[in-house]
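User: Structure please.
Assistant: Input sequence and predicted structure:
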Amino acid sequence: MDRWILGFYQLLTRLGFSDPLHAAIVHIPIGFVVGAFIFGWIGLVYDRERITQSARHCAIAAFIFLFPVVFFGLMDWEHFYGRAWLAPIMIKVVLTGILFVLLLAALLLGYSERVKAKWILPALYTACFATVILLGWFGARLVYGENPELTLMPYKSGYQVFVNSCKSCHPNGLNIVLGKKPILNSSKLIDNNTFITYLRNPEKTMPPFPRTVIADHEAEELYLYITTILNKPGTLR
């Protein structure tokens, strides 16, 4: 799966698109949610059934497009962030679940004859609208936030090196050969020089990675990915 995802993004890069795919399509369901919010309240205030139906149609479209947006969001998370549970990502996951529930409730209630209060659907659309605002906020903080550890590009190359050369033996920073010596919090990560020296001349079962396999700049990018994304803060061991 990792190889397939990497190949997919490499194809996009060759086609001239190297940005996260999620960001390119996320505005589709957001736009439909905004439409449902606007049409829902206009239909309620002016008692226009056709406008109310337009709000329902927007909610349906938002619900449908939510699925590919989530799918490509997960792919971007895998490719660009190495499945790292950064705080904005965790918040976005929770908000996406809330949006799914709200849209589903709006769809079910929109075609239920038991709903007498006409304000319920616009209220749900308003909750959806507020949720996508928060999703947009935390998405922006993820890419453009003040914390440099949350920026996207410094880890992309290092993650690709990790997938190609390290992940088979060190999934999620562990060690499937020597379980007591994971990458996480390893003393070999104390600085970049120590890491690269060990990479060139490792111990026991780990094969060496000369410059012909992992160039110096790639090793530095790998170190950056491991220490800022994969490695969790804690005492070195």
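The longest helix spans residues 49-81.
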